[in-house]
Amino acid sequence: MKKISLIITTLLLGFTLSAQTGQVQVNITGITPEWGGTVRIGLYLEDGFPTVGKSQVNKVMLATKLKDLVTFKDIPAGTYGIAIFQDINSDGKLNRNFYGAPTEPFGFSNNKFGRFGPPKFAEVAFAVTSGDSTALIINLE
After folding, report:
1. Predicted pLDDT at 82
2. Environment class of residue 141 by beta-carbon count within 10 Å: exposed (0-12), middle (13-18) or buried (19+)?
3. Whole-angstrom Cα distance, residue 27 to residue 139?
4. Which 8-state DSSP code applies to residue 31?
5. In this model, does residue 11 exceed pLDDT 50?
6. Of 105, 109, 124, 33, which Cα lies nearest the Cα of 72?
7. Which residue ranges form the domains of the chain, and what is each CATH number?
8. Contact 18/36 with Cβ under 8 angstroms?
9. What is the mean pLDDT of residues 74-103?
């Protein structure tokens, strides 16, 4: 009897956890495939935004093979921000000029850009809700 109740509890917990996720679909504009390199997309919580390597989920795709729509599945419900850049030389970082301005195309959710550095998380934040799909269009500059 204990085994049966344990199995039922485990199944119910699994259904509950899977129901608390959503998905995020990102349509990216402004990529220049002929420049080559990779496109790096990070889905961030507030802590760690927008540092490369501190995202909750990330995707890296060849710029020449990027599909119109990038989908993140099974994302736990919560508040997130996205940072994207086309890593033309595939060195894993957003390159900058002498003055600190990015030299590779980049963008953020809600198409927000900071004046001197990246935007604040609150400006790029969007909600992922259970069982829903969130669609974003992000333009790279």
Report:
1. 98
2. exposed
3. 9
4. -
5. no
6. 109
7. 21-139 (2.60.40)
8. no
9. 96
Give the pLDDT band of residue 114 (cuts 50, 70, 90).
confident
Q: Which residue's entry shows tokens 């963008």?
A: 107
Residue 23 exposed, middle or buried by CB count within 10 Å (0-12, 13-18, 19+) = middle
Q: Which two tokens stand for residue 107?
A: 């963008």
pLDDT value at residue 135: 96
Question: Residue length, the chain?
Answer: 141
Q: Comparing C-alpha atoms, which of 41, 32, 44, 57 is closest to residue 138?
A: 41
**CA angle (40 as vertex; 39, 43 as ends), nearest 5:** 140
Amino acid at 99: Y
AA letter at 91: D
**Backbone φ and ψ of 33, nearest 5°:** -60, -35
What is the average per-residue pLDDT within 100-111?
Answer: 95
Handedness of CA 84, 89, 95, 99 (dihedral sign): negative
